[in-house]
C-alpha cells in the first residue's frame, strides 16, 4: 500500500496534471488539497486537450473518486462550469465520483473585485495574481470571517454571514479602493442558486478519506502551483496564498502525515515562472523565447506568457529538502532537443559569496547570480522514446546530471504531452 503526494518542485506549471493523470491509474482516491482556479492543469488524452482548473485530473479515469479538500478555495461558478463541460463531453456520468469538503471556503464576488483593484493600484509592485480572488479569500479564512461551503448550504446562516461581511467589504471597496460596492440581494440570489447545484457533492471528506485508507485504498494527493510559490517557503511576497508544499496535503485534506508514503516533485527539464519575483536563470533573449515557443509556455488559466530559463538545481535541491521528496518526475525533456548545448545552474553567488541554499531575503534573492555548467545537446527527436534506453546518450547524461545535482532519484521522464510519451523508471505506488 502507498499513498502519494505530487507537488511542484519549481514555480508551478511543471506538468503536474499529466503526472497525476498517469499515477491515477494506480490510485483509488485523487485529492486536490490547496489553491483555487488560479491554477490550470493541461492534459492531452489521445488527440484531445483537456484543461482543468479545480477538479482533480483523476476525473478523466473511470471508477476513481475525486475529492476537493478543505484546503481549496472554491469559486462555485467556475466549478459548475467545469463540471458541466465534463458532463457534456461524456467525462462524468456519475456525480458520486466527485466530492467537495463541507469545510472548504467559498470565493465571493468581493474577493475578485478586491484582488483586481489591489493589483491595478500596485503599479510596478504587482504580485502578478490572476485576479480570481484567491488571496482575498484565504485572507478571510485566516481572519476567521470566511464563508464555508457548509454556510452556503444553510440559507439563514449564509444570509447572516453575507450581510455581516459586506458591511466591511463595501467600505474597503468604496473608501479604500474606489470601486463600486457589492449588492447584497444580487449575491444572495446568485449564490443561493449555486448552493442548489453544489449540495449533492458535499461530504465530510476527511472522514471519507480516513475510511478509505483504513480499508486499504490508495490515495493520490494533487497540489497546485509549486514549492517556490508556497506562502511560507516560497519567494515571499511573490507567492500564492496557500501551502503548496507536501505538508499542505495533510492540512488541506484532513489526513495524518503517517498516511503519506511517497512524495514526488514535478520539475521541468528547464524552469519557468509567471508573475513577478526573482528568477536567477531567466533568459531574456532568443534562447528564452525559443524555450517559450517550443515548450508552449503560456498559462493554462490566463494565457500569460511564462518567463523561461535554464534548469536551476538550487531550486530543486531546496524543493527536495522542504518537501522530503522521494522522487522527481522530469517533464518536457523533449523541449531541449533542438539546442546545441544546454546549461544547468549548479549554484548561486551573491556579493562575492557562494550560497548554500536559497536566501530567504527577497532583496538578496534578486541579487543572486547563477553559476552554470554546460553540457552538449542531443539534437534529435526523442518524442517517440518508449524506454530510458531509447534516449540518446547525451540526453541520458543530462538527466543523470540533474539527478546528481538535485540529490534525489528521477523516477519518471516525460518526452511529450501525451500519456504514452512517458518513461516510468519507478512507480511510487509499488
Automatic annotation (TrEMBL):
GO terms for molecular function: adenylosuccinate synthase activity; GTP binding; magnesium ion binding. Substrate binds at residues 300-306. Binds 1 Mg(2+) ion per subunit. GTP binds at residues 12-18, 40-42, 306, 332-334, 414-416. This is Adenylosuccinate synthetase. Its main location: cytoplasm. Pathway: Purine metabolism; AMP biosynthesis via de novo pathway; AMP from IMP: step 1/2. Homodimer. Plays an important role in the de novo pathway of purine nucleotide biosynthesis. Catalyzes the first committed step in the biosynthesis of AMP from IMP. One of its GO terms (biological process) is 'de novo' AMP biosynthetic process. Keywords: Cytoplasm, GTP-binding, Ligase, Magnesium, Metal-binding, Nucleotide-binding, Purine biosynthesis. It catalyses: IMP + L-aspartate + GTP = N(6)-(1,2-dicarboxyethyl)-AMP + GDP + phosphate + 2 H(+). IMP binds at residues 13-16, 38-41, 130, 144, 225, 240, 304.
Amino acid at each position: 500500500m502507498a499513498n502519494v503526494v505530487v507537488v511542484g518542485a519549481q514555480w508551478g506549471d511543471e506538468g503536474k496534471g499529466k503526472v497525476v493523470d498517469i499515477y491515477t491509474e494506480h490510485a483509488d482516491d485523487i485529492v486536490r488539497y490547496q489553491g483555487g482556479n488560479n491554477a490550470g492543469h493541461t492534459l492531452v488524452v489521445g488527440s484531445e486537450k483537456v484543461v482543468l482548473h479545480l477538479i482533480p485530473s483523476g476525473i478523466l479515469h473511470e471508477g476513481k473518486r475525486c475529492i476537493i479538500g478543505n484546503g481549496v478555495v472554491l469559486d462555485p461558478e467556475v466549478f459548475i462550469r467545469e463540471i458541466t463541460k465534463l458532463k457534456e463531453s461524456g467525462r462524468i456520468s456519475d456525480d458520486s465520483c466527485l466530492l467537495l469538503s463541507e469545510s472548504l471556503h467559498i470565493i465571493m464576488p468581493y474577493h475578485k473585485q478586491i484582488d483586481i483593484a489591489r493589483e491595478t493600484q500596485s503599479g510596478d509592485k504587482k504580485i502578478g495574481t490572476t485576479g480570481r480572488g484567491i488571496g482575498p479569500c484565504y485572507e478571510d479564512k485566516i481572519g476567521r470571517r470566511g464563508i464555508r461551503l457548509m454556510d452556503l448550504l444553510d440559507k439563514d446562516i449564509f444570509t447572516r454571514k453575507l450581510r455581516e461581511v459586506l458591511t466591511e467589504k463595501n467600505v474597503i471597496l468604496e473608501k479604500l479602493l474606489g470601486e463600486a460596492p457589492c449588492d447584497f440581494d444580487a449575491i444572495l440570489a446568485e449564490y443561493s442558486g449555486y448552493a442548489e447545484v453544489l449540495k449533492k457533492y458535499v461530504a465530510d471528506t476527511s472522514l471519507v478519506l480516513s475510511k478509505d485508507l483504513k480499508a486499504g485504498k490508495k490515495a493520490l494527493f494533487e497540489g497546485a502551483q509549486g514549492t517556490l510559490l508556497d506562502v511560507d517557503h516560497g519567494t515571499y511576497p511573490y507567492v500564492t496564498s496557500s501551502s503548496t508544499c507536501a505538508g499542505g496535503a495533510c492540512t488541506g485534506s484532513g489526513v495524518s502525515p503517517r498516511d503519506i508514503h511517497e512524495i514526488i516533485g514535478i520539475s521541468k527539464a528547464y524552469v519557468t515562472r509567471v508573475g513577478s519575483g526573482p528568477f536567477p536563470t531567466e533568459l531574456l533573449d532568443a534562447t528564452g523565447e525559443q524555450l517559450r515557443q517550443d515548450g508552449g509556455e503560456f498559462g493554462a488559466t490566463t494565457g500569460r506568457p511564462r518567463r523561461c530559463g535554464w534548469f536551476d538545481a538550487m531550486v530543486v535541491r531546496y524543493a527536495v529538502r522542504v518537501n522530503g521528496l522521494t522522487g522527481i518526475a522530469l517533464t518536457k525533456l523533449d523541449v531541449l532537443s533542438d539546442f546545441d548545448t544546454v546549461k544547468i545552474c549548479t549554484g548561486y553567488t551573491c556579493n562575492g559569496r557562494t550560497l548554500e541554499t536559497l536566501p530567504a531575503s527577497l532583496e538578496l534573492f534578486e541579487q543572486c547570480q547563477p553559476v552554470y555548467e554546460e553540457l552538449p545537446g542531443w539534437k534529435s527527436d526523442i518524442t517517440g522514446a518508449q524506454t530510458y534506453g531509447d534516449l540518446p546518450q547525451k540526453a541520458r547524461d543530462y538527466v543523470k546530471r540533474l539527478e546528481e545535482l538535485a540529490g534525489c532519484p528521477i523516477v519518471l521522464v516525460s518526452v511529450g504531452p501525451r500519456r504514452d510519451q512517458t518513461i516510468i523508471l519507478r512507480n511510487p505506488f509499488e
